[in-house]
Prior knowledge:
Blueprint (H helix, E strand, L loop, with lengths): L18 H14 L4 H11 L11 H5 L4 H15 L2
Helix pairs in contact: 1-2
Amino acid sequence: MAISQETMMFKRNQEKPNVADTIREVYAALQEKGYDPVDQIAGYLLSGDPTYITSYDNARTKLRRHERYELIEAMVVSYLENNK
């Protein structure tokens, strides 16, 4: 069996989850744990401190897959689209 001298590329097919779906999932996890989701998400967005988000149901990990500016941008777009 001959060994190829070509470099092989391994690609992961790991697509980033939808920002809106992530925000909804995190919101639900915060609510389930008895937190005020709006206050907690706002605290995270303003400070960057991930401890504002519960680790319950991997909410913290899910939210940190996105940059904070992506989250803010999605929220602004959603707000403007729904409040014309």
